[in-house]
Each structure stands twice: as C-alpha cells, then as structure tokens.
Amino acid sequence: MSEEAGSVFGLNVLEKLRSAYKLDYEEFVSKFVASVTGSPFKALVATVLSQNSTDKAAIKAYKSLDEEVGVDPFKISSVPLGRIKRCVRVAGLSDSKARAIKSLARYASSSGDPDLKSLMAKGPEAAREILTSVKGIGPKTADVVLVTFGVLETVPVDTHVKRVASRLGLVREGAGYEEVRKTLDALFPAPARHEAHLLLITHGRRVCRSRRPLCEICVLNDVCRFFAIHTSTATRNAVSRVRAKRVG
Ligand code: SF4
C-alpha cells in the first residue's frame, strides 16, 4: 500500500471505529490509573498487571496491591517477593509480574525520581530506552505508558490490536511487535495514534473477538481481508445490501 493510500485507509478505519464506539477510559487500566493518580510509576505497575489478563482482573490486582502494600516504590522494594505475588495473583502470571514490579520499584526508588515524572520529561527515545532496560518491562508496557502520558505518539500493539491488524490484512501472520507497530503508525496520523490504539482494543474485545468474530455487524467488514476470504458470497451480498440501504 502506498503512503497516501495507507493514510486514506487509516483515516477511513478511524472514522468507522469512532462512529461505532464511545471510549470508556475506565476499561483501560493504564489510562484509568494514570488519570486518577497522575503517576507514571503507578501506571507502569497497572500496565504490567494487565499483561495477558483482562483489565478487570488487573484493576482488582492493583487495588489488592495498593491496600496490602501500597503502590509505592519504597514500600514495594521493602516487602518480600512472595507478598507481592499473593497480592497480584488474581491477574495471573503472578511470579513474573511480581518480579517485574519489584525491579521497577527498585529502579524508581533508587533513581531519585520515585514517580518517574522526570523520566517522562526526558523525551520518547530516552524514556523508552531506560524503561525497557528494567527487567520485566517490555516495549509494549513502555509504549502504553509513554502514549498515556503524551510522551510518545505511537500505536502500542497488544493481542487485540495485533489480531485486528492481521485480519484486516495489514500485517503478515507472525509479524513481530515492532513490525506491527510501525505499520500501524504509518496508517494513523500521529496525534490520533493513542485513540486508534484504544479503539482497536475496544473493537477486538467487542466485535473482532478471537473466537467467532461478529463479522456481519462489523463496521470494518467492507475493508477486511478476513471477511472477504472466510465469509460466504451469500453473506457478503446480504451485508452489502444492508449497507446500501443504510447509505441510500
Ligand atoms: S470483518 Fe470480522 S475479522 Fe474483519 S475486522 Fe470485522 S470482525 Fe474482525
């Protein structure tokens, strides 16, 4: 796809998703924690908890950690790993998440910048490099927090974003994190990339679900490769007739 065709396609997808969904920030744990606390450290902890988990379970784990220990780098550094593990168990993968949270707390408490606000002021490249050098913090976690705080304009790629991009035919099967992110960044205008990320997640959760996607009611079915390949001609014709009626 040429650069120009890509940005027309991206704007078209963005418009369709905007018309379909009203974003509720409480459904996104990182966004929610960032807006309530204003703390990049706390948003990072929330984002770690949301990996391979639902945001609902991540919020429960975050609240449990907050009540039992406190989402504070000095407090987290001073308690045994097992205690963190017990607090975050509800979000799954408690061993690796507790270890990542401990590493992050150690970094934040020794950096002289416990909330990591000064880190955000270092700019996107430096902040990303420092965050991803902390054990257990990967590019997706770093990107989610950097876009949430307006430091970076990108489309972080989670499992929903990747599935939708792949089904639309934008990326090849098995494409890695950076490949998908760069492809999506090229489609969406920089100031709309965070919104595109949240809309694609919402679409993946509600309609383009992993199992049995609801293609017949999907606002993107006229631009989707999966729909074109895996849906019968009769269904595609019926969907086109309904669409034509609406437009007419
Ligand atoms: S048409 Fe189906 S596969 Fe394509 S984006 Fe919509 S729900 Fe997903």
Question: Topology of this structure?
Answer:
Layout: H1 3-20, H2 29-37, H3 40-50, H4 55-68, H5 73-78, H6 81-88, H7 94-110, H8 117-120, H9 124-132, H10 139-148, H11 159-168, H12 177-187, H13 193-206, H14 225-230, H15 233-247
Bound molecules: iron/sulfur cluster (SF4).
Iron/sulfur cluster is lined by residues 164, 167-168, 207-208, 213-215, 218, 220-221, 224, 226-227.
Provide a descriptive summary of the structure in words.
- The chain has 248 residues and is an all-alpha fold.
- Among the domains are: 38-148, Hypothetical protein, domain 2 (Endonuclease III, domain 1); 215-247, no CATH class.
- Helix content is 65%, strand content 0%.
- It contains 15 helices and no strands.
- α2 runs antiparallel to α3 (40-50), α3 (40-50) packs antiparallel against α7 (94-110) and α3 packs across α10 (139-148).
- The chain starts with a helix and ends with a helix.
- Residues 164, 167-168, 207-208, 213-215, 218, 220-221, 224, 226-227 line the site of iron/sulfur cluster.
- Iron/sulfur cluster (SF4) binds at residues 164, 167-168, 207-208, 213-215, 218, 220-221, 224, 226-227.
